[in-house]
Amino acid sequence: MQITQIEAVPILVPLKDGMFTKTSHGEHVHSPYVIVRVHTDEGFVGLGEATVSPRWSGETSPGSVAILNGLIGPALAGEDPTQISRLRRKMESLIRLNPFTKAAVEMALWDLKGKAAGLPVYELLGGKVRDEMPIRWVVGSLDVQRAVDLAGQFLDRGARCLKIKVGHDIDQDFERVRAVRKLAGPDLPITVDANCGWSVQQASQMVRRLRELQVLFIEQPIPTADMAQLAALRQQTDIPIMADESAFNLQDAWHLTAQRAVDIISVYPGKNGGIQATLEITNVAKAAGIACSMGSNLELGIGTAAMLHLGIAVPTIASEIYPGDFIGPLYHQSDMLKTPLSLGPAAARVPEGPGLGVELDEEQLEKYRDRSGQARGIGSVTEITFEG
Fold first, then answer.
1. pLDDT tier, 18 (very low <50, low <70, confident <90, very high otherwise)
2. pLDDT given for residue 168 in this prediction
3. Is-contact 2 25, C-beta < 8 A?
4. What structural domains and CATH numbers belong to the chain?
């Protein structure tokens, strides 16, 4: 089997009414992503998804398309798509950064390998270690009443874990978390995510104040520049600290574990640069005795499917303890799939078909195809950070 073409389709998918989210990075109201199709001479087509964001990884939809058409596509033409490790190395030699773009191609290669073998990707990763993955629903950094209203909607649907975005004014942050805790009751797990929004001094105050609210963990409380500061903050609290923006690649994971800077590492294939890259990071975490949790960049159906195959097969991605962000399709007007994924409200299940187990909806692809040719990733979308 040989690759004949790598096709990049830019799309622009709005979020559902009332489902936009807000973080310390900005608001997310629609998603300028790229769908990738890897075509082969045997008729198999692998699917991938690049959930690009300029403020998150420095990538835009037009930039991703240019890299796929001008660099990666020509370099991989004629190659055997099942040789994932070698092709991943080839992509790394072409371009140093752009993890979400490279991840889209790599997940399409896994999809092809599974389809050719007649096996789900999770079987290629070693098989299931769990049957389902608890998920957490995200409440943006909204005013208190709006946050409570949205949390109430999620709880009414059957949500069993909530994630509250913080990272602005610390008093407002605290009131938002306290109000949602009061609504949810004392037993429902609640996490908070500052998206680098607190200073070290603010974070030191908040880890003390949040203790009374029984927070499950605090995600990325301070900026990424100094891991020693993150390690020092961890020593101030018994609330687990999670790294996200601090943990893009394998080297980041090594530094975090070597400095004992965090209790949990957020992983997902887009941010990490592919499924294999996520596996490498989880192995570093495992060796250090640190758990991982599945994050998100508010993926659509294909990207979420890749996350589900990892989450179901990797013991270190401990969704039973730290529920994951398997929810991106639920926030969008379309997931781009013919058959929706099984997502929640309390837990997610992996699709069972060969490869990623999903089929692209061609009508939805045409409906949401971005024909503008403009750099949608700059200006029109203020941020694509969801788990991050």
1. confident
2. 85
3. no
4. 3-118+362-368 (3.30.390.10), 123-349 (3.20.20.120)
